[in-house]
Amino acid sequence: MSTDGTGAAEQHRPVPAEHLPLRPLWLCRRCGQPWPCGRARLVLVAEYRDNTVGLFLYLAGLLYEAIDDLHQLDPSTGGDVKGLFDRFLGWPARHHGGAESPR
Ligand SMILES: [Zn+2]
């Protein structure tokens, strides 16, 4: 009876929990929330903490693509641009506005 090394446990590295948008639906690939989900927002704020303008430019670009994607998916509901605008650009504005106290 020989013990050969075939049973070597492969190191299983879990995929980093990246909350990225699933296009063209623009839902989070991990948690299924409308993107950017809470986790994605945290990551973005951390990533762009020294570059607020960059964060807005990045999100504005994605907003443009999201409007385009969602409109092609369902032209009848493509009119919710205001909601999308708030979803992509409203929260960092509030985040950096500061004056608003959460109740
Ligand atoms: Zn998520």
TrEMBL record:
Domain of life of the native organism: Bacteria
Name of the featured protein: Flavin reductase
